[in-house]
Amino acid sequence: MAGVPAARKRVLFLFSDTGGGHRSATLALIEALGLEYPGVFDCKMVDVFRDYLPAPLRYAPEMYPPMTKFPETWAISYKATDGKRRSRAVIRALFPYVARAIRRLYRENPADIIVSVHPLVNTGVLRTMKSNPTPFMTVVTDMVTTHAFWFDRRADLVVVPTKEAREVAVEYGIPEGNVRVVGLPVAERFRVPPADPMAFRDEQGWRRDLPVILVVGGGDGMGPMEAVVKSINEARLKATVVAICGRNESLQHRLKSLSWNMPHHIYGFTTQMPEFMAAADMLVTKAGPGTISEGFIAGLPLVLYSRLPGQEDGNVAYVVKKKAGVWAPRPHQVVDAVRRWVEDPEALAAAAKASSKVAKPDAARQIAQIIADRAGVYSAPLGSN
Hints:
Elements: E1 9-15, H1 20-36, E2 41-47, H2 48-51, H3 60-68, H4 71-81, H5 84-108, E3 113-116, H6 122-129, E4 136-139, E5 157-160, H7 163-171, E6 179-181, H8 188-191, H9 197-204, E7 212-216, H10 225-235, E8 240-244, H11 249-256, E9 264-267, H12 273-279, E10 282-286, H13 289-298, E11 302-306, H14 313-321, E12 325-327, H15 331-343, H16 345-357, H17 363-374
Parallel strand pairs: 1-2, 1-3, 3-4, 4-5, 5-6, 7-8, 7-10, 8-9, 10-11, 11-12
Helix pairs in contact: 1-17, 5-6, 9-12, 10-15, 13-16, 15-16
């Protein structure tokens, strides 16, 4: 096709498994590039911390989960390093220690465009690239409360999920013309929901005549999910509880062993989250940006029962402001919220409509088109539909 380059374009994605959102966003973008431009791109993912940085930084993916179990301590470190001056001071102190590793990263991974999906790699890579520039994009995966580490004015383009995040980017020195509000990239399977959610209910043995309360705690079943499920069960609501415990087998066993007062279905890790969301009526979750974005796409009212202080504070405020859900940090508050929606279908429908209104299901595909443009692919997307 005229305009499509003969040589495949190389895209280097920089991420790290410090939280599941960076990997899932990267995979969503790689999938979208393949769908929009079949056969045009060679994509490579590099976990900068694990694959290149020296100890102890290389152990950041393993250190992250234990650190988040102490949210107030996490909040102190988050705020202590945020802001223009503080973030620059941290980077100046660290750069001599990581400079050799970053230069090796850049040397060993030639690319036509670099896409960063992690806040802690941007300045180091951009500083290293200054003598041999490659187009550099940052895709911000925090929804609203975005740390200063995300933003380096040397980036060619910064893509953010919300207008609120755009304001922070500009405040931290990114030229307005270099910031694009698109959304948070999520996998294609969330963009195209199942054709018949009720058929999925039948397949799973869920009752059709009761609203479904979907309770999740992330891939590892983190946070006070157990207390939340127990409180809902004790409320004896006229609804079905569906709890997804992720990889937390102990939590799954304990919930299955409860003395249940309501119809219930308990699951471990699943790759069918789009089907679960499509078949549910409301979502009870921690305030992670990925799950919130997926809930919006499914049109689910949200009950947020926990958040990571600092980076997820804004997520809570955003959901509440958009009337797409409520903040319920105590189990009894979760019960009050879901009871209202169970007993008042009109209130449930209004929250569902508000949730759908802020959804951005095409974000991954739109970002893929931006990457293609920046990489010099000038033809129309081949896989658009």
